[in-house]
TrEMBL record:
Gene3D superfamilies: Glucose-6-phosphate isomerase like protein, domain 1. This is Glucose-6-phosphate isomerase. GO terms for biological process: gluconeogenesis; glucose 6-phosphate metabolic process; glycolytic process. Belongs to the GPI family. Pathway: Carbohydrate degradation; glycolysis; D-glyceraldehyde 3-phosphate and glycerone phosphate from D-glucose: step 2/4; Carbohydrate biosynthesis; gluconeogenesis. It comes from Thermus scotoductus. It is an enzyme of class 5 (isomerase).
Amino acid sequence: MLRLDTRFLPDFPQAFKEHGPLLLQAREALLAKRKDPQSMLGWMDLPEDTETLRRIRRYREANPWVEDFVLLGIGGSALGPKALESAFNESGVRFHYVDHVEPEPVLRLLRGLDPRKTLVNAVSKSGATAETLAALLVFLNWLRENLGEDWRRHLVLTTDPRRGALRALAEKEGLEAFSIPDNVGGRFSVLSPVGLLPLAFAGMDLEALLMGARKANELALAPLEENLPLKTALLQHLHRHLPITVFMVYSERLKYLPAWFVQLHDESLGKRDGEGNRVGTTAVPALGPQDQHAQVQLFREGPLDKLIVLVVPERATEDLLLPQVEGLEGEAGYLFGKGLFQLLKAEAEATYQALAEAGQRVYTLYLSEVSPYAVGWLLQHLMWQTAFLGELWGVNAFDQPGVELVKRLTLTFLERPGYEF
Ligand SMILES: O=P(O)(O)OC[C@H]1O[C@H](O)[C@H](O)[C@@H](O)[C@@H]1O
């Protein structure tokens, strides 16, 4: 369950009423694009795709030998699975993410892995991302050298249904491969095999994850009053003059969720609108309570240039009572007998109030608990929010023309004769 709290933004209910027509128009414009196969709105349908889920389950069951799962992918091909796996890994399978090109950690990883117990999953929608291709070269070679003909069983690809280097490799070598639907872009792909395959190996309850996402879909299509994604989209829209939107999550298990949100928000919305104006707000990741001891000083007394979103669980799956320890009554007595989760909730509430009191604009999204259902709901909710904002800000939320130059320049530098920095 996901619940919005805007108690420190008293004008919001009125603003929501006034902006009703604008919001409905934005939703209509977005949904009208669904008919267009180029629209990249396939993420809306992923929670219904039970056939893919069945295939993934069968694959997982056929490979019980996996002890280490190495995911080669970057951006939208890594951030979602990482955010969910680190929260919900129940299986004991160890996960490793190669979403970088720093040699030392790759070498350290290779030296510590047993190839016979390792499954490598290369993930790339385009099949053309330099970091992922570089990692694939290394791991493919490593599997071949160590496993001989058996290497094929240890490599699974997640990529475009037809195009790109990964698809070509899968066909040439007869490798197991899962498809990211044509009309699903990287940062909207967490509920496709990009996320579902690794999460099946993590032992996560995928039915519940998708059920939560279906709930977000239901609300996005619901009448205005119940429409949670239109509400939070409007909160972001009303504060678009503030350059920063902080996404602060009060959950250690969800510590990688802010990074997923940052890509979703920044890469979708930071671009030129139809008139050439630069639009977008900068999402800043934060974690509670750790960042109370780092960023909150700035949030309290620094510039009032932020919209701050807190994501707070309402219940613990299991609390841990703090024992009374003799000799520590003076300093820690106020904690005796309290739950660790009680402390977490008190800290989140204290931050909420202190930020509002400082004049920062702040609202909270309460998660009933850190469960696959609630988090599935939250992820899909945030995708709807982003898509609605794309309409409100007049930008295409599903492309990323701005990142291309870096890719092209990287290739130019590598191909330059005598290249060395
Ligand atoms: O999945 P891939 O095609 O390898 O893309 C991985 C990432 O790289 C690109 O640079 C895009 O900007 C991201 O949106 C994408 O998630």
